[in-house]
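Lecture 7 notes: from sequence to structure.

We start with a single chain of 319 residues. Read the sequence below before looking at the structure.
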Amino acid sequence: MKKDSPRRKIVDAIDFLTDGKPEQQIAEIDIENIVEFSDHPFHLYEGKRLEDMVESIKKNGILSPVIVRSTSPGKYEMLAGHNRMNAGRLAGLDKIPAFIKENLSDEDAYIYVIETNLMQRSFSDLYPSEKAVILEMQYEKVASQGKRTDIISELKALENSELSEAEVTETDSRGRLAKEYGLSGRTIARLLRINHLTEGWKLEVDNETIALMAGVELSYITEQLQNHLYNECSDMAIKISLKDAKMLKEMHQSGALNENEISKFLINKEKGVIAKKDYQSIKVSKEIITKYFDESSNKNIIESIIELALKKYFADQKG
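Now the structure, written as tokens:
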């Protein structure tokens, strides 16, 4: 992704946030009465960026009000300002300035969450899972206009094989998305697949622990099996490669993948890694061989005696 990709054009910020009413007042509300948006798809700040925000709030307070929607009397859901609320809480604030939106539908609330994040950050600065959410919202907008056939065709084609660049640049809706976000049709299709990953695997892709394309391959596996695979990989400290992900996807498509097969797959992978990296051939010197064995002892006898000696040694260590 190029850093100079064009920002997405959005509606006027002031009208969007205040319903076109400049006189709308800001209220101070208790942070403890605000819950995070239930499907918030964006990462909260961490590290130095969070520390700097906390220090700024301690010094200057929260200068830009957050946006919440009323869920019941005195209770609110955060729409825009998750980082400010988090930093404000860490800075010791009890209250936070907020625009309160009344009678807001779930669909409109979600638009607030998405659009306000794009006001603050370039699309190119987002994590893959965040880009995927935004593209899906645009995809649904196209779908509602009855123009999604080309995207569906691309996703089905991508499931089975790679597409040529000519194939992914022909259709109108992908062309609009490509122009708006500076992406190829192939990349858009891949990012849309990230929405089908479980949260654990999305985080792996965002942190670049696994490759984006490995995440795309895993996205075709059922949620239950994705969760099992993620837990097993975490327990065994195994990293999934693109080759592994492709094999698992093929097993799933053939109907051969289940929890037991995933465990076997990972055990075999682990054995391969250990044999390659952690062990090497050990040569016993001639002096040691002649010290304990005579000329009548063949290789099999020597190996069996060494194994018995090792078993006794480790048994004694445990005892």
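The beta strands are 27-30, 34-35, 66-72, 75-80, 95-101. Keep this in mind for problem set 3.
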